[in-house]
């Protein structure tokens, strides 16, 4: 076998110019763009379905009803008329939900649009447990008058404006934290 020398830069340019290469393939369109074109007409024709209601069910009916109910099926009426909503209800709560059906329909129609649903169909069965609502932030207790006066006296030399108000809030937070820590220590102190 004979050893072959590599071409230099000029020979390489001639070789590459003589060969025809295939153009780079265009990447396929994104699935989201293709599916949007397919799903948009279906959504306009049939509506969003129960998934939109399930995602915001707690906001629509409130915490108490959301714990005992869940939307299962949303049926559209014939000829574009009002449809019906099928909800699953924990067994013992079905009678109470039946009495609240007009209010539930009113709230659902506020979400879906006026006249979207005119009938509520109740099915008894187990309801999936919803995640608990996020806890509401508690408002911190106010400082007593003596602590507030000491804090104001300590900030007399600070210039008025944003810096002073920020320092005031920081001082209040520190004093509240110290009071909370002292209370925790008092609770956890062993009794003798």
What is the CATH fold-level name of the domain at 45-124? GMP Synthetase, Chain A, domain 3
For the record, the CATH class of the domain at 45-124 is: Alpha Beta
The general outline is flat
Largest sheet: 3 strands, mixed
**Radius of gyration over all CA atoms, rounded:** 34 Å
Enumerate the strands of the largest sheet in spatial order, edge to edge or round the barrel: 1-2-3
CATH architecture of the domain at 45-124: 2-Layer Sandwich
Q: Enumerate how many helices there are, as a single number.
A: 9
Low-pLDDT windows of residues: none
Series of secondary-structure elements, N-terminal to C-terminal: HHHHHEEHHEHH
Q: Termini separation (Å)?
A: 99 Å
Structural class determined from secondary elements: mainly alpha
Helix content: 40-55%
Describe the model.
With 192 residues, this protein is mostly helical. It contains 9 helices and 3 strands, in the order αααααββααβαα. The protein has a 3-stranded mixed sheet. The longest helix is centred in the last third of the chain and has 27 residues, at 162-188. It is flat and about 95 Å long. The model has no long low-confidence stretch (mean pLDDT 83).
């Amino acid at each position: 076998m004979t050893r072959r020398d590599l071409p230099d830069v000029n020979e390489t340019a001639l070789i590459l110019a003589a060969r025809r290469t295939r153009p780079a393939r265009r990447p396929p369109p994104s699935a989201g763009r293709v599916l949007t074109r397919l799903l948009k007409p279906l959504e306009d024709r049939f509506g969003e379905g129960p998934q939109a209601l399930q995602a915001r069910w707690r906001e629509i009916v409130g915490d108490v009803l959301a714990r005992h109910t869940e939307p299962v099926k949303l049926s559209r009426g014939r000829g574009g008329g009002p449809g019906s909503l099928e909800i699953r209800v924990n067994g013992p709560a079905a009678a109470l939900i039946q009495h609240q059906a007009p209010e539930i329909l009113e709230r659902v129609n506020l979400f879906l649009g006026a006249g979207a649903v005119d009938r509520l169909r109740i099915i008894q069965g187990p309801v999936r447990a919803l995640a608990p609502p996020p806890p509401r932030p508690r408002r911190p207790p106010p400082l007593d008058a003596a602590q507030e006066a000491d804090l104001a006296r300590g900030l007399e030399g600070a210039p008025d404006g944003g810096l002073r108000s920020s320092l005031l809030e920081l001082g209040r937070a520190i004093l509240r934290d110290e009071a909370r820590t002292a209370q925790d220590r008092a609770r956890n102190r062993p009794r003798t």
